[in-house]
Amino acid sequence: MRKDKFPDRLDCASQPAEELHVLQFDDLVDLYDYFLLDASGVFWGSSETGMLPGARETMGHLVSLGKKVGILSNSSQLAAKEKAKLAKHGVQEGSHYHFLLTSGEVTKELLISEKLSFPTPKKKYWLFGVDHPRFASHSILFQDTGYSQTKCLEEADFIYIAIPHIDGIDQENPEVFLKQIKDVIKAVPVLCANPDHFVPEGLLKRLVVRQGMIAHMFQNQGAQVNFIGKPFSTVYEKALQLFPVALQPEKILMIGDTPETDIRGARQMGMATALVTKTGVMHQRIGEKQPLFVITNLPKTDQPDYAIESFKIYGF
Asked: pTM, whole model, 2 decimals?
């Protein structure tokens, strides 16, 4: 592995934006032996489009080179569900990646071990919203735990946020949920198992509201919100345990499409970071603007070490 030269690392403080460059993923392959991938917007397009072009082949190529590839997703689904979804698209554990960890999986572990960050003496939760028809029921997270759902908010230890939708239709405008949030504000904590504000969905990959945005709106109303997922450290610590023992975080390259979750969390853990600019959330934000202008104007906590067009090796 070449360690003597890192191409165009985004030292935004010392270089003007016009001197920085968006790289191809090929430029980074030889520099790292360990990769941690976000899913949506990096290698996964949407429920309708499936894998992004060249991503499956790129994952397989990395594994064939002896690289270790992990997936860290903010999905509130269990890992088994996500693995089955990928398998239907020809992406297999062992051949294309070595482990897959979701915030939903970590949430279930915390529920089973009763290690939530707030007291739950009644072991009851109240569900904000209803289950999304395209995803597995939230109740799978609570199966085989000591927690049960209550229909009475006053009996609940906490509020759990379901995947937001209205009559099965994803929403682009979070304000449509504001009245419901205001109606249920109580002095109980809120649990969010997916900190993403938006994810790309549909054939046009429009950005639709997810649990993190609902949680943010709860916070704005004064609620105590507890997050499980990127950028918070618990999921990164779990992911690190799945890499070789004593591996230094800086040896791992985290690749994501969302600065506030993927990049911020990895930076806090000391990992190297790469932000994709032509797929996922960042692609939508950049629009017609210059990618490096947008990136260099991010908060320092959210700026990546590298910017790459996409997670795709040339020729795939």
From this structure: 0.94
